Amino acid sequence: MLPKKLEDVTCYKCGTKGHYANRCPKGHLAFLSQSKSNTPRATRQLNYYINAICVLFGIETCGLKG
């Protein structure tokens, strides 16, 4: 499989074309600015970060439903 050109790559964090999520110039919380935040993938990403924050602060129950 050939690698994609950057013009064809869409960042799953911010939704912009031209870079991969691990190189997102908008930072770790870029997914919060996505206009498609109701998609299942965005919901899973948001849950991941919310749960990581909850673990960091010792909160047992948190996250989104869905």
Automatic annotation (TrEMBL):
InterPro entries registered for this protein in UniProt: Znf_CCHC, Znf_CCHC_sf
Keyword Zinc: yes
Domain annotation CCHC-type: ranges: 11-26
Presence of the UniProt keyword Iron in the record: no
Pfam families: zf-CCHC
Keywords, in A-Z order: Metal-binding, Zinc, Zinc-finger
Domain of life of the organism encoding this protein: Eukaryota
GO MF annotation terms: nucleic acid binding; zinc ion binding
Protein name: CCHC-type domain-containing protein
